[in-house]
Design goal:
five-stranded antiparallel beta sheet, Chitinase A, domain 3, single chain, 11 helices, Alpha-Beta Plaits, 3 domains, alpha+beta
């Protein structure tokens, strides 16, 4: 392979390369293609798949295997030429064969490459560290969560329904006096204030008592999923069977012994304090990382090819697929369970992919300015960490990670 010419195009981060593949390399590619295709070629006088190459070329022309041979060998030549030109290949826009014969191939390729962003002002950027002080409010909030998880529903008979209650109702919906499909249920449990139903429905149940029968009136939102109901006014006939209220356990030593391995409330609070402190420290560190990342992405200047974002999305999906396979599942099964297609999955990863690409390019820009180099030992440590994470052999991890 030889790089003959490199030309910067008008489009951002786009170059045209003129590359030659020598005759010996092209001949080997032709022979590989011949061996793959001869199995399906019938030539009179020869058993299927046994016709010599020279006979096939004599019948169909010496260039019969050229197209596939070029496809076979140009990717490696293009990668090698890009590296020789000092360009990081992102995407191949087009390939055009200029000349091809027994002496080799010359082709032109238009490629998109990684940009080298400019960055200034990264020294001394200001960030704010979140507090890691554990307050009594933190502890009480955690206790309330545990109380809620250990609560029970009890029937209320001496008052009307209020927000937070669970009501057991029959209901049937009507539009213009006609019942509509999917608008009826019996003995339905609904938590008032949960926002489970359309706006106004739960509010109108508040204040009613068990045993009452009444109607409520609502308007379906314009963007309601059932188009035949969107924007329509509806009447719901209600029968309220039962009101249930959440009963929380008392916070005392007995409660503590039920929900933990501690014996007293004070011991339990001290355990919670330690747990919360670790969480707050972790959250604060992550927040600092996020703040620094956001600042660096804002400071980095330059145009980033869309293909880089696409490549990052695909890499993240491959990574997710690898994790799924370690759990005995594959991507197709996951998407089927989630009711997603590949486009929806890509959209899900898009924002995070853009952030990763921008941050990496920003860090590379800083590394160039500060003359920082990644050593082989750094790479080996990263591969070892990935191998441990995915329970794979390190050589297989290296093969799976794009270079």
């Amino acid at each position: 392979m030889a790089l003959k010419e490199t030309t910067k195009k008008d489009a951002a981060n786009t170059y045209e390369l003129v590359i030659t593949i020598d005759g010996e390399t092209f001949e080997k590619a032709i022979n590989r293609v011949y061996k793959r295709q001869v199995k399906s070629i019938n030539i009179q006088g020869f058993r299927k798949g046994k016709a010599p190459r020279r006979i096939i070329e004599k019948m169909y022309g010496t260039e019969v295997f050229y197209d596939d041979a070029i496809k076979d060998c140009y990717p490696d030549a293009l990668i090698e030429a890009s590296e020789e030109a000092g360009l990081k290949l992102v995407n191949v826009e087009s390939v055009e064969v200029v000349e091809a014969d027994a002496d080799g191939v010359t082709f032109k390729a238009e490629i998109v490459v990684e940009p080298e962003l400019e960055i200034d002002g990264y020294k001394g950027i200001e960030i704010e560290k979140k507090s890691t002080e554990v307050t009594e409010d933190h502890i009480n909030e955690e206790i309330e969560k545990v109380r809620d998880r250990n609560s029970r529903l009890v029937t209320v008979e001496d008052r009307a329904a209020q927000n937070g209650d669970t009501v057991v109702i029959d209901f049937e919906g009507f539009v213009d006096g006609t019942a509509f499909e999917g608008g009826k249920a019996e003995s339905f449990n609904l938590v008032l204030g949960s926002g489970s139903f359309i706006p106004g429905f739960e509010d109108q149940l508040v204040g009613h008592s068990a045993g009452e029968e009444f109607s409520i009136f609502v308007t379906f939102p314009e963007d309601y999923q059932a188009e035949e109901l969107s924007g329509k006014e509806a009447e719901f006939k209600i029968k309220l069977h039962e009101i249930k209220s959440k009963e929380l356990p008392e916070v005392d030593d007995e409660f503590v012994q039920d929900v933990s391995e501690k014996g007293t409330l004070e011991e339990y609070k001290e355990e919670l304090r330690e747990t919360i402190e670790k969480r707050l420290i972790d959250e604060a560190e992550k927040d600092l990382d996020n703040q620094v990342s956001e600042k660096l992405m804002e400071l980095a200047q330059g145009e980033i090819p869309e293909a880089m974002y696409d490549n990052q999305v695909n890499e993240m999906i491959r990574d997710f697929d690898m994790r799924l396979r370690t759990q005995g599942m594959n991507m197709e099964t996951y998407m089927s369970y989630m009711g997603m297609d590949l486009d929806a999955l890509k959209n899900m990863y898009r924002d995070e992919a853009e952030k990763r690409v921008k941050l990496r390019l920003a860090l590379e820009a800083i590394a160039r300015k500060e003359n920082i180099e990644v050593t082989d030992a750094d790479l080996e440590a990263e591969f070892a960490e990935l191998a441990e994470q995915y329970k794979m052999e390190i050589d297989k991890v290296k093969a799976a990670v794009p270079s």
